[in-house]
Amino acid sequence: MQKFANPARFLKLAETLLPPIWGVTILAFAAGLYMSLVTAPPDYQQGETVRIMFVHVPAAWMALMVYTSMAAASIMAAIFRHPLADMAAKAAAPIGAMFCLLALITGSLWGKPMWGAWWVWDARLTSVFVLLLLYLGYMAVWQAIEDPHRAALIARIVAIAGFINVPIVKFSVDWWNSLHQGASVFRMGGPTIDARMLWPLLIMALAYTLLFVGLLLVAMRSEIAQRKLRQLRLAGIEGR
Amino acid sequence: MKLIWALIRRDLTLATRQGGGAGTAIGFFVTVIVLLPLGLGPDQALLQRIAPGALWIALLLSVLLSAERIFQADYEDGSLDAMALGVVPLELVVLAKAMAHWLTTSLPLAVVAPLFGFLINLDPQDILPLWLAMMLGSIFLSLLAALGAAITVALRRGGLLVSLLILPFYVPCLIFGVAASRASELVQPSLLILTALVLASFVLVPVAAAAALRAYLK
Amino acid sequence: MDWNAAHIDFVIAAYAVSFAGLAFLMVFILLRDRKLKRQIATLDRERDRRDG
Prior knowledge:
Helix content of chain B: over 70%
Helix content of chain C: over 70%
Strand content of chain C: under 5%
Order of helices and strands of chain B: HHHHHHHHH
Order of helices and strands of chain C: H
Low-confidence stretches of chain B: none
Oligomer: heterotrimer
Number of helices of chain C: 1
Mean pLDDT of chain B: 84
Strand content of chain B: under 5%
Structural class of chain B: mainly alpha
């Protein structure tokens, strides 16, 4: 683990990993789009509207996954003092916020024809909205505190404390009666969803994950660059 | 233990000498409750239906309004540095200050809230459950306010950040608090969950808030 | 895919919003990376010139 603590080594690793990641991401998106729009069958109840699932569910999964990895990175930063962990959490936040926003918007577009309302205040929707607020709050901490070391310490606390919301989002459909349907893929006893719908969903989820990994690497590279820039500027001021 | 009492007593004295503390919060609380029927129209049935939720929201906002003050003065005049170096662990200092905030701000609000419920036609049946739920929930609100105050203690425009960071955590308290306030019986699942929230925050908030304060005191 | 089905506009809108959002995010992150890289290059060059 400590091997990747060296920024130079990380930059080299990112350089070699990024081209194949972008390649596979494009392939996965192409395959996922084809499968979800052409080969997946319409639902016998929801008709063609069910196709919104293939963009809505991966975005929602990613919103949870990204926050979980942010909290994990923050814990790593707190315990092992891994210098890249704080940067990873900071770089992941805007990406997760976008996934969360997209999950809310596509969910709204799905809810209007199915439930007859753009938005209902049930447990799942409310807790995902809270997740978006947590992402924004986390980003606001980095914005508000100038000293990067201090900002990192505070941001860690926010990320770890906010993690409480993730299980609430996951289990909200089980704990409260909700309009939102229950889990049909990750559940005890295997998925209850037809294979012709499951595969496009999984491919799209893979595409979203790869996009996240690629963007995260780039954003972390930017973080390293920004820190270097700060040091160069400080040195420049002192040198004059 | 004696030192913690001393800390709480110090904050209580400061609050009473300066005034302001509970007064401002109650003033804000009353304003919200009075403005509500003006905005919604004087429909008694409607007011009765929304009364518990409205009182809870007013409580939540009033506590949030007073959150910033919990650590600010002590941070600015250096008392907090002294407390961090003292024999009492910073976690317990946080707990003491949160309790002082509860005693001076949240608890008085929770005590008088049902009285103002009459202004918005609160169902007399709901008074006792609402009272109990608010007394309990206000502890949670004060602890969370202390966490928000610790996270933003050195920031000039911390107010906005406090609301953005703390409102998400207030959501479960609001949901279960309102549910517990409309009870047919006094002790029921929502109240138990609210108790669980209070106990969990009692342990977790001091740890997190002390970590945040240490980051600023360095 | 039946293009005349009920609510098809909602499906199209969901896909359009998703890909617009992801594209915006990508452009934003990639442009920021490039801008920072360029700034560092400029500073490095200035320092080299000054130092010798």
